[in-house]
Amino acid sequence: MNLSQPNIVALFAGCGGLDLGFRQAGFNIIWANEYDKEIWSTYEKNHPQTFLDRRDIRKIPSAEIPNCTGIIGGPPCQSWSEGGCQRGIEDERGRLFLEYIRILQDKQPQFFLAENVSGILHKKHEAALKNILAAFEEAGYIVSLKLLNGKDYQVPQDRKRVILVGYHVSLNKKFTFPEPNPNHLTLKDTIWDLKESALPAQEKNKTNGSQCIVPNHEYMTGGFSTIYLSRNRVRCWDEPSFTIQAGGRHASIHPQANKMIHVEKDHFIFDPNSPYPYRRLSIRECARIQTFPDSFIFDYQNLASAYKMIGNAVPVNLAYALARVIFDDLRGVASFTEKEKTGYSRGFCPQNLGRIKG
Asked: Has UniProt tagged this entry with the keyword Cell division (predicted)?
């Protein structure tokens, strides 16, 4: 294993926010998997050194994935979301966690990191989560789990996510989560300089392309649903953002406008006396709030695709904070056997598939 730049693979990579944070921390992402064709171009443009496997993860034999020091990735979270049906492991997307465990058990890297929404901690998923943790442990890992808020790690938004990190038992170590940073970033810290240059989308919310002075600095237009208007959607300049959502229709309102007015239960309206108009955050503003650098260019035709890939990403700064701890822990390991350097296979136990049903 090259401790100067350990090789890792990324599952369910999306556009690669988690990957970028790990790369900034000193890791080399040699192979990634993403099945959503609307993301492929963006990933490949921004991670040219990484081989992107576009197949359905369920059809990729573990033997075709490179041996590596670590595996990172967030299995799809919709089935665990508090805003969704919460079917969890019973949902086809929820069961993709099993593919993550299959590959982990077969490849036996030194560590793994998995990310998911806070809804996975809901009481109705207690049994499923307990069995997932047991499967990670049976695969040979000492697992740490914690609910983190991105705003505590230099991410300018309230974003609660469950992080699981496992160290292989051969390391004789347990991951310790980094301490929260009390200095929270605000919207003014993050997007103030963009306030005058955003463009509304073209007809049918198509991109303006090269007409954007700042790349991707355009926002979705159109009406707002009754669900959207059921609560205030505006944060002030001196606050962190609301959670960046994986959909343009639900993007928060830019802080130039006044906070919305509560008129009755589950019903807010826009303030008619607001000094500036109400508009959604732009794609670039959402990317900044997710701590993507401006050099990270999103490739799309429909703005909805861009909002989705950004909202589903792990914030880069949060990924970096976690990756630095892992990198330092690995660097502190004195020696490795040849097996541990290259990874080795332990057959996936079919009985685990039956256990993780919650």
From this structure: no
What pLDDT is attached to residue 92?
Answer: 62
Picking from 108, 31, 96, the residue whose alpha carbon sits closest to that of residue 59 is 96
Asked if residues 245 and 81 have their Cβ atoms less than 8 Å apart, the reply is no
What's this model's pTM, rounded to 2 decimal places?
0.89
Residue 218 has pLDDT above 60, yes or no: yes
**Is residue 345 pLDDT above 50, yes or no?**
no
CA distances from 264 to 206, 228, 259, 269 (A): 35, 14, 15, 10
* φ/ψ (deg, to 5) at 230: -80, -10
Is residue 349 part of the annotated active site? The answer reads no
**What's the CA gap between 324 and 15, in Å, rounded?**
21
**pLDDT tens digits, 165-212:** 999 999 999 999 999 999 999 999 999 999 999 999 999 999 999 999
pLDDT tier at 2, thresholds 50, 70, 90: low
In angstroms, rounded to a whole number, what is the distance separating the alpha carbons of residues 309 and 298?
A: 9
For the chain, give the longest Cα–Cα distance: 69
Q: How far is CA 46 from CA 52, 185, 248, 266, 327, in A?
A: 11, 25, 22, 41, 22
Contact (CB, 8 A) for 316 and 291: yes
CA distance 187 to 240: 6
The reported pLDDT for the residue numbered 198 is 98
What does the alpha-carbon distance between residue 261 and residue 270 come to, in Å, rounded to a whole number?
A: 6
Is pLDDT at 10 greater than 50 in this prediction?
yes
Instruction: Compute the distance between CA of residue 153 and CA of residue 322 in angstroms, rounded to an integer.
Output: 9
Architecture of domain 7-181+315-332: 3-Layer(aba) Sandwich (3.40)
The per-residue pLDDT for 338 is 38
What is the C-alpha separation between 14 and 150, in angstroms, rounded? 18
Domain ranges in the chain are 7-181+315-332, 187-311
Domains 7-181+315-332 and 187-311 share a fold: no
Out of 77, 85, 286, 349, pick the active-site residue: 77
